[in-house]
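Example 3.2
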Amino acid sequence: MRVTVILSFLKICIVATYGTPGDDLIMQERNGTTELGDLKRPMEVYEVPIGELHVPPSTTETQSGSSLPPLTSDPSRPVPLQNLPLEDGRQALSPDQRIRGPGSPDEDYLDFGSGVVQSSGDVETCALFHQQCSQDSYCTDYFSGFCCHCRSGYYGNGRHCLPQGIPQRVSGKVQGVLTVGNSLVELGGADLHAYMVVGDGRAFVSLSQVPEHIGQALMPLTPIGGLFGWLFALEMPGHQNGFSLIGAEFSFHTEVTFSPGNERVSIVQEARGLDSLNYLSVDTHIHGDLPFIAPGATVQIEPYTETFQYGASVVTASSVREYTVVSTDGSSETFSFLLHQNVTHGACPHDPPAHPDTLQLRVERVGVLYEAGERSLRYTTANTVGPVRADPALSVNPCTDGTHDCHATALCLPGEGAHFHCQCALGYWGDGHSCYDVDECTMGLSACGSLSQCVNVPGSHHCLCHSGYQTDFDGWTCIDIDECLSQLCHPHASCTNSPGSFQCQCWPGFEGDGFHCLPPSVHSVRPSTQCETSCWRARGQEQAGTRTFPGSPSTNFDQPAPSMPRPQTVCEHWRSSLLEHYGGQPSSYDYMPQCDALGQFQPVQCYGDSTYCWCADRDGREVIGTRSHDAVKPACIPTVAPPTTHLPPRRDVVPPLSGPTLLYAQGQQIGALPLNGAHLDKKKASVLLTLQGSIVVGIVYDCWGKRLYWTDLATQTISRARLEPWAEPETIINTGLISPEGLAVDTVRRMLFWVDSGTDRIEASSLDGSGRRVLFDTDLVSPRAIVVDSTSGTLYWTDWNRDNPKIESSTIEGHNRRVLVHDGIGLPNALTFDPSVNLLCWADAGTKRLECMSPDGTGRREIQNDLSYPFSLVSHGNHFYYSDWRREAVLVLSEDGHRVTDEYLPDYRSHLYGITITSPHCPSG
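Structure, written as tokens:
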């Protein structure tokens, strides 16, 4: 009798044939052990059939007295894998590249119920280690172990996968010690930022805070940025770039020897993987000697090629490069350096490589620039990876030289000669010249199940599991959280898990809610009788105020019980404890911590329904100087970034129109609103920059430098960006900040000033963040806004200390500090200086007034007395523009300030913070 069983699992088709005594068997007897012939070939992957599996008969019918166990008639019982020899030279899994003989303690079983090979040996299989793969990959079992492979539409090594065609960012620190001439200089944590247009292989690398004589000498050292060109190079058909081969965890070693001076430099770049936004993190260490390059000189580098040789877990390349130094007098001289590169990474040893042993990287459009005034060093390249000695004609294809017109989120596919085709990347739609994000959530294209919420992100989407569930290894499936494993119940209680929730119940003889259980003699609360009813929360806690007694109306049990939240935050735990302390019924004057939807402390905390309020930091601690009894609550700014569910798909600078434009900060984005005269051109409103995980508060525009500067409360940094296409945001201050808020630029002296309500300081620095110094660190409680009169060199700032609000001034050097206004103000959030009329004006959320005066404090007058909740203010063209927290809008006041002439409400509704105006014409002086 022949019985055929077909098992289908993850595209597997395994046909097992149960033989009869007359069937031929592959099983052979060699030296008393049972083997399967030659088992040296790697196993075929799961995606193809793996042949017929012939199972020997029971022990009584086995050849040569073999003691194989009988075939079970129970299909749910695993069959020992060593009983399944294979035909056609194909093999199943084995821990040591052989099938163990009968009775071996380490047996592999093929579970016919699940279709998964279960191993008790030392082989790592997908069934046990699939979580090591990227959520955008699939796992494949081979004879000696498993490997990860990126899904279609993604590229990488399987453990790290990125969507094809999406621009990629890299960030990290550059440290080391270098010698130039007789000068020894330490690079104390310069910032590295890289931006790669993967669709055409262009790479932009920037190093900030680099001293001038080191910056000049570093210009020829293009290998610092060459790594990123190789990682994300444009791939010719049949060839792969560096990231496709090594992923996001590796060590890149470079040795450079300059000629003719024989200076040597060592570069070590360590990649630490991808962050939550799929961006790469790389730390760079540089040590050695550099040839001297005179200040003002430039460096020119011609296109070049490099041949990379690939081994099992090592990639090497050696070459000689030339560069030309052009002096300020126009003379030039050409030099060279010898380059050795070595990349070590964790390649999967179980899958033979499909790429050639050698690949060639073609690098064109090489640019290098050091800007001494900004202490920044920039490298740009256009990179293509293909076969060695590729046809030079390929280099003229627009995809290769970057002259195509494909969208930044599109792939440029080269054709014959100069022909090419633009194809939008996965997750985008369009003709390739214009690509738009596909909203998988609204179009019904998501992979999210009924237990999750779909959240659209640029080029993809995420699934946010409902409370009580967590994401499985695949990133899409939501599985129940077994809260009982976390031992949340009292030691004298039992825990019962249920889908999306759990329940704690005290043991017999104990009383309580399951989280607190006491013997009856100790418990102070009367237990419920059989005639009482009550509602219970999903956590097993009695819902306060729902217990009823005989004769009372019954509680409405039809209301859905709240689902199990995430593990309690500090705010939620504190709130639960106080609720229990108040017996479930706090009074209108009792303090109950106010938590947001994510369980974080709300920035404003109050006693019950009273007006006795204060600001709280992210840990719930009161911010000194913010407590008040006023009807207007304090202007507290959150310190934790909100979810990114409504952010637009821009992650780079989209320059505003050429005319005057109002820019506004709105948490994680900076918006642009063109001005048509004094009116807001709402139809042309756009997003200038998206900064996920940020809370942008203060913004200011430097007209002469064409840069925007901003403070970020969530990341505790100060950054800037040029207002030009694809400009890379640059962090210039990232230490010593707690709550940076307002900032100002002195356009004459090229200086930056800012206030920090966490450190209670006013500080200054150069526009690149260097030369930082503290101007004031005393008699400040809640500083918020700051402006500068560049003509007179005077600073003005507000402090909304609820006990003593004031407006002060000083020189930009920190001298002649004095209080200008301290009477008749409450919450002076906003401040602006109009040099055209020499007026200092402020908007007060406490008094609801807009007032102006001369810079010396005289001539104070009221402009408007019916504001709602102003936060930031700017004057332009005899009009006032301000952001309002209560209306969540930007408003325009008439020339006399008596009426609102225009209003803009962004589509994404949330608090608006700082505002500023860009102009194509810079003021004189």
